[in-house]
From TrEMBL:
PANTHER family registered for this protein in UniProt: ATP-BINDING CASSETTE SUB-FAMILY B (PTHR24221), HAEMOLYSIN SECRETION ATP-BINDING PROTEIN (PTHR24221:SF646)
Keywords: ATP-binding, Membrane, Nucleotide-binding, Transmembrane, Transmembrane helix
Organism the protein comes from: Paractinoplanes brasiliensis
Cell location: Cell membrane
SMART domains documented for this protein: AAA
Domain of life: Bacteria
UniProt-listed InterPro entries: AAA+_ATPase, ABC1_TM_dom, ABC1_TM_sf, ABC_transporter-like_ATP-bd, P-loop_NTPase, Type_1_exporter
A molecular function (GO) term: ATPase-coupled lipid transmembrane transporter activity
Pfam family, one: ABC_tran
PROSITE patterns in the cross-refs: ABC_TM1F, ABC_TRANSPORTER_2
Protein name: ATP-binding cassette subfamily B protein
Domain annotation ABC transporter: ranges: 376-619
Membrane disposition: Multi-pass membrane protein
């Protein structure tokens, strides 16, 4: 297989934004109606919770405006009756004036109701968006960390992120559908009042076009489904050719011609399919138009026969023509909104389903009944194990250790040995599959979780680059209180970040995100200093630092570890690092291998044992010796 084939053919995972269209394509033309009542109920319930007054205005005004079509058509007929009647023209016009006045009033009321609907809906939209989005984020920020380990949860959440947009779409499309349906019913009522036979003629003239529109929509969604891989590949290529992150390697490796070739290949195939779709849609719509045209011709024939036989007046025939045109417009609205409502309904269904399924990952909120933990005296980890859902072997397997307050301890071992996972359990970010972790002899879960978090600070290896100022990034986690500038700067000095921050355009007030105005980029090492300062700022009983110096230069690394050693004897520190020279002064060193604790002791004790730790230390030390 060539490189070109290899990079284009493999399927990508289904994207969240394709889900609604995929369901629409699989459902078919008439299957859309089966789920329609459910989506309409959800839309009404959602809008009602967001704003009862505006929802009432939208529903009432939409129904009222649509029903005005009946009065409008009947008034139009009455005007025509008077104008086509016998007698001098001035008298006929005068006789038509009352009906004209009613028609003008109906038109004015419909216009006013339309304004009321628009005004209420514009106010309803942000409230629906806020309600749906807030509910989603209340859930995503409350679930346990292990929820993100489950593929199904991650996929669910990805699709649910469109919930707020889908909620707005569900409400607006339901309103538009209601307007179209009410308009159709109003026209049908008016036609029946004029002559019941005309209702059959109306159906013959409009339904074929409506079915053709639904069928054309099905063809579009089916094409969308068939082209999902191409479309996702195009999305990836567009990002590769136009984003800042890929720009350096694109130029370094001369990838411009290769990527443009990939684009031409995939886009060429996509264009071919879109041209085929255009022909099929045009054919379908043309057939529908021809059938409706034949039906419309039949309507004119029927009207002619009714007129010739004296069964209806000319005014009724003209009114019927107006009614057919109004019905066609309403039917176009209905068919269009049906597709939109169905696809948005699928996204909203995913949103609601995610909220329901996420409940199993949300801890019980009984923190008020649990006591606040006192300062740390002793941390006991007893027979602790943790298994990830996608792994056969445990990440941490039956580990037992004890840490006394004021100690500096180190977790060392090769990649994948379970160091970070063990630290995450100690930090109460994960719950053990087996075993127990105790703070002062009491399980972590028995303490108030919020108060416990304030006793623990964690500096993560995979830290997030928060798009806030340097000062806010350091004070993160204490933003509800009064972040003191002196305290922020003290923490920055411990992490060798103070001088770096002062060199920024606005010092501690510099926004650390270049996508915003006057924002600034940091290097990997500079970001690592900021995150280390965040850990020092809290001055917690227990500080866990996971690879805090992997991107630091030697001077910054030395300053950082001097600050860590400064905590020894007063505060407890758990240090995870591959640079073993930095753990020589640790009170205890715990060596893990494949999730199992294989060695423990001080540096001198472990070197005397001459086991795994000693071997790793000598390998690193040899790298600093002349060859």
């Amino acid at each position: 297989m060539s490189v070109t084939e290899e990079t284009v053919l493999p399927e990508l995972r289904n994207a969240w934004w394709e889900h609604g269209a995929r369901r629409r394509a699989e459902t078919g033309v008439f299957g859309v109606f089966a789920e329609l009542p459910q989506f309409v109920r959800q839309a009404v319930a959602l809008a009602w919770r967001a704003d009862k007054a505006r929802t009432s205005v939208v529903a009432g005004a939409t129904i009222a405006a649509g029903s005005m079509a009946t009065f409008g058509l009947l008034s139009t007929q009455r005007v025509l009756v008077e104008l086509f009647g016998a007698g001098p023209t001035p008298e006929r016009v005068e006789a038509a004036l009352p009906a004209l006045a009613v028609l003008a009033a109906v038109t004015a009321v419909r216009g006013g109701l339309g304004i009321a609907v628009g005004y209420a809906q514009n106010g309803l939209t942000p409230r629906v968006n806020q309600a749906a989005e807030r509910r989603l984020f209340e859930t995503t920020t409350a679930v346990r960390l292990d929820a993100f380990d489950a593929d199904a949860f991650a996929d669910d959440m990805e699709r649910a992120t469109r919930g707020s947009d889908a909620a707005n779409g569900l409400v607006s499309h339901t309103t538009n559908l209601l307007a179209g349906v009410v308009g159709l019913v109003a026209v049908a009522v008016a036609v029946v009042v004029i002559n019941p036979l005309l209702l059959l003629a109306l159906l013959v003239a409009t339904l074929p076009n409506g079915y053709a529109a639904l069928r054309a929509g099905h063809l579009r969604y089916a094409n969308f489904l068939a082209g999902s891989v191409r479309r996702r590949r195009l999305f990836v290529l567009e990002r590769q050719m136009a984003e800042r992150e890929s720009a350096p390697e694109l130029r370094t490796y001369g990838l411009r011609r290769f990527l443009l070739g990939q684009y031409d290949m995939v886009m060429g195939a996509q264009t071919t399919e879109e041209l085929k779709l255009a022909r099929r849609v045009t054919t379908t719509m043309s057939v529908g138009a021809v059938i409706s045209g034949i039906g419309l011709g039949g309507v004119w024939v029927l009207l002619g026969l009714l007129l010739a036989g004296g069964h209806i007046p000319l005014s009724a025939a003209v009114t019927c023509v107006v009614a057919v045109q109004a019905a066609q417009r309403s039917l176009t609205t209905v068919t269009l909104q049906l597709d939109f409502l169905f696809t948005n309904g699928q996204f909203f269904k995913e949103y609601v389903g995610f909220l329901d399924r996420a409940r199993e990952y949300i801890p019980d909120d009984d923190s008020g009944s649990r006591p606040e933990p006192p300062p740390l005296r002793r941390l006991d980890i007893s027979g602790v194990s943790l298994r990830y859902p996608d792994r056969d072997t445990p990440a941490v397997d039956d580990v037992t250790i004890s840490i006394t307050a004021g100690q500096t301890v180190a977790f060392v071992g090769e990649n994948g040995s379970g160091k970070s996972t063990l630290a995450a359990m100690i930090a109460a970010l994960r719950s053990p599959s087996d075993g127990m972790i105790e703070w002062n002899g009491r399980p972590l879960g028995a303490w108030d979780p919020e108060a416990l978090r304030h006793r623990i600070a964690v500096v993560l290896q995979e830290h997030h680059k928060w798009p806030y100022t340097a000062a806010t990034n350091i004070a993160m986690g204490d933003l509800d209180g009064d972040a003191e500038q002196t305290r922020i700067e003290t923490a920055a000095r411990k992490a060798a970040a103070h001088e770096t921050i002062l060199a920024l355009p606005h010092g501690y007030r510099t926004l650390l995100d270049r996508t915003f105005k006057e924002g600034h980029d940091l290097s990997g090492g500079q970001w690592q200093r900021i995150t280390a300062a965040r850990g020092f700022y809290r001055d917690a009983d227990l500080l866990i630092m996971d690879e805090p110096s992997s991107a630091l230069d030697p001077l910054a690394e030395d300053a950082l570890f001097q600050a860590i050693r400064g905590r020894q004897g007063s505060r407890t520190t758990i240090l995870i690092t591959h640079r073993l020279a930095n753990v020589i002064h640790a009170d205890q060193i715990f060596v893990l291998h494949d999730g199992v604790l294989v060695e423990r002791g001080s540096h001198a004790e472990l070197m005397a044992v001459d086991g795994r730790y000693a071997g790793l230390f000598r390998i690193q030390a040899a790298g600093y010796q002349p060859g």
